Amino acid sequence: WKTKYVRNTNSPVWNEEFQIPITKSMDDIITAELWDQDSVSHDDLISTLVFIIKYLPIDKDTNNWYYFNPEKGVKNGGKVRLYMRLERGPN
Predict the structure, then answer these.
(1) Among 18, 43, 48, 81, which is most buried by a count of CB atoms within 10 Å?
(2) How far apart are CA 79 and CA 89, in angstroms?
(3) Cβ neighbours for 40, distance < 8 A, ≥ 6 positions apart
(4) How many CA atoms does the CB half-sphere of 90 hold within 13 Å?
(5) Quick one: 6 exposed, middle or buried, by C-beta within 10 A (0-12, 13-18, 19+)?
(6) Residues 18-44 pLDDT 10s
(7) pTM of the model
(8) Residue 30 CA, distance from chain mean position
(9) First and final CA of the chain: distance in angstroms?
């Protein structure tokens, strides 16, 4: 899953929604990555954050600011506000 690029800002807003399937064992992890977009060279990974699914609350909204871990050579990984909801699927 990938968001659209937001150009020319240090405070992008995406307002995008993804429905990501999770296994019944809930052993999944989701790695969120922040990238820059380069028109001349290749895009660069800025920072990452890993979410371990089994530690997220089920059937409850999570709406928090998260500090991302900067990649080597990046001073500040940035923070992102994410809204998540892990819903119990059909049995």
Answers:
(1) 48
(2) 30
(3) none
(4) 0
(5) exposed
(6) 999 988 888 999 999 999 888 788 999
(7) 0.84
(8) 8
(9) 25
